[in-house]
Write a sequence for this structure.
């Protein structure tokens, strides 16, 4: 499937190929995955998203593996198949063990369960949880 | 709002009060938050969910703060207001700094953005990301 | 909150008031709830939605209480606060006991949990579950 | 995949074939796509949905291309693969250029990002944004 | 696709095979579907989820077919393809007729529609719908 | 509610106040809404998001009102209350008539309905809708 074409190196506009080159250098691999080849149809968007990914996913106050696991969590709740596949692979590449993956899934599953319970009961947050009361 | 009543200690059935007592002891506080008081209408469910929370959120291959951040990530994507409030408070209680919270939000926001981009383009996962091909 | 005004009987256009009258007669109550008063800003939409609700929620191959519980289930997963409130009230009015409500919440919570587990693992449906294979 | 069979012209009940004929005439093509062939298992639902699509998607105060882009936006956020495919094709058939598609994706992606940021921070709407305050 | 391997009987750890055996006995079939084979990578999770499914989906104050339809409803709203396939098959195995399935889809579709309408208008729940007002 | 404080001009760090100033100038109003005051806790994120909003929502191949309606559509499907309020207000400020708003809601509602129908039936996209077939 797909609603846009995945562009090969030969098909991609020059501005997109420059991003491909940076992806290859930063990641230390010749492989450019589907997401970037699809975005190559829009070189300006490709460049903006790649910059944002580099900035946000870099080591900071959270380590890169924690960030990948948070990314997986959001993608699971949003049912984004591609994102779940690519970030699970990325997390493993950054050292996530199978036991950690299993534990991650249990947390995600529990959150999914209690999110539904809470929504069913429509519970209001306790006053103690509210930081920024307005008005 | 709410579709069920929040039960005070006096109103809760004995089986629910026993769970309240365990929550107090495990957490080292007298305060029992709304979620448990709402679940107290169903003591068996209350007991099951509390056991699952204790087991899954305990230190393991992932540390408790990482688990809270994953929980927040799922809850944000599922738009569960109560869950976001309670687990953001829990993460702070477990040591999440404001800078870490800011970085967590940037990762969640980026995942939300790329989830939508990927869904819009309907990209299939690269073969390299697929672990368990069936058939 | 709200992005449109809730129209009183005096404010509603005549076409909307006619729908209000039908709601009152069918439901045997003088009370017209917020949803319909908001839709009254668009009388044609109000009339269409009310007709669809009457048709779809009427007794058929599924009984009205089962339909209300299905409605709640969808609304919980979609985090629609108003819908959860109104259809939980409707289910109770149609005879849902508190024990049934508790059991409904457990099923919804379990589905939420396994939906997240399955999405995390990206499992393909077994051949035996596929009815209408195409191409 | 699929949980129901796609009915060919020969398999579809007479009431469904009549809708197929109207689809062909309105759209000026002999091709009837999967959605309608799946709904043909329920001819009354098929007829109702087709009428609603014809009415709602017709030119009105919004032009048909704008409507298709709104449809895509909802479908992306709901992760409905079929809907994204079919309405992206429809938007292109109604004149959406690739540059417009690229811009549409950027708006959808930005909305996905800020939706997640806002949910993470649980911000209450400004008083100025509230039109229909109740009570 | 999939992010974990589906384990055959020969590959599954002994603790997982014991759960497979219970699944076979309870369901009266030799077939163990993909979900359980994927969870077999985490035998403790497999055992916990299977126990929960047995308990929650058993006959109680709601009959098993009603529970399956509620499960389908949640899974549709969460866009969980595997879950929709497996629980639609389970509902049919428990006696859901095609006419009931058609009616179930109409209720789910109507709920999806009104959930979106209500969210667009951001309507607050009527006071009469609120059971557990806090503070 | 809220999980972060809304910062007044006096409380905001200097880098955030500079963004507030640009917001005021670009929008021609002294009012800075809650979203930006919440983001002010993270001045770098505030600056990045404001730049992205200015760039993406500017007139381009799609006009600003169309973009606001697409934004509303995504926000409704994601159940983001604040976003729905703020972008409905923005769309009205950019000229959306009440009749256009009513029509927008009908399209969003129809998409919500058919998204659920399609997900329930798990229909695969027609070959004619697939642009970028991989492998």
């Amino acid at each position: 499937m797909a609603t846009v074409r995945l562009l090969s190196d030969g098909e991609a506009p020059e501005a997109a190929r420059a991003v491909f080159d940076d992806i290859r250098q930063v990641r230390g691999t010749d492989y450019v995955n589907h997401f970037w080849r699809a975005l190559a149809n829009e070189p300006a968007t490709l460049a903006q998203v790649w910059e944002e990914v580099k900035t946000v996913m870099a080591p900071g106050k959270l380590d890169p593996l924690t960030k990948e696991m948070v990314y997986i969590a959001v993608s699971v709740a949003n049912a984004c198949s591609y994102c779940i596949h690519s970030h699970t692979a990325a997390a493993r590449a950054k050292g996530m063990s199978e036991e950690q993956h299993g534990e991650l899934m249990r947390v995600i599953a529990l959150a999914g369960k209690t999110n539904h319970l809470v929504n069913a009961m429509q519970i209001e947050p306790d006053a103690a949880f509210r930081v920024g009361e307005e008005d």
